Structure formats: C-alpha cells, structure tokens
Amino acid sequence: MTGISRFTGTEITDAQELSEAITTILTTPKGSRVMRRDFGSDLPRLIDAPINGETLVDLYAAVAEALARWEPRITLRRVQLVDARAGQISFAIDADTVAGPVTLDIAGAGAVVGAGAVMGAVA
Known about the structure:
By secondary structure, this protein is α+β, with helices and mostly antiparallel strands. 29% of the residues lie in helices and 33% in strands.
C-alpha cells in the first residue's frame, strides 16, 4: 500500500508514510494546534536545552510519551541519542510494527527535528 508525501506530493510507501507521521508528531510543539492542544511533543521545547543527563531523560520521555499517545501503529522499544549540538539533535528509534521491527533515524535542526527522517528494516 502507498500514500502521498506531505513534503513532495509524490507517492510513498507505508514505511515512509509512518516516518512522516512520526516526524509530524515529534516536531509539533504541544499547544500549537488550535483544536487539538495536546497534540505533538515536548521535543521542540528541548532542542536548545543544555545537553546533560536531565535533558537526555527529558528527551527520551518526550519522544516515548508523544509516540505512545499519537502513533498507534508502533510499539516503541528504544530511543537512542545519536548526536546533539546547539540547535540540532539526532536520534534513532527502534520500534515494532505489524509488519515487523523498524529503526527510524531522526535528524534535524531547530524546531524541524526529523524533517529528513529515514526508515529502514532492522536486520
């Protein structure tokens, strides 16, 4: 099955559509949607926070909480920080889907965390 990319308007696979949906969830600040104030995540609020143990815990919690609430097609297994610097963050998400396990590589700058998300099957 396929869908349409919200970024390019071209046809995409189910895996790519899932990746785009997760990107939308994680990059939408909570409180920014008028008719759905609780939609989104706290991730945009954390993007410029100092990189320390407390921020890492907050980051992992923000991703886990948002995906548990808004993406029923996955069961989160792990969130791993790959890279973090001023205004940028990259992490890997391991999850289970109906089709099997997947790994999402999420990277971005500023509030656009995940705009370049790529999805692939776990070996």
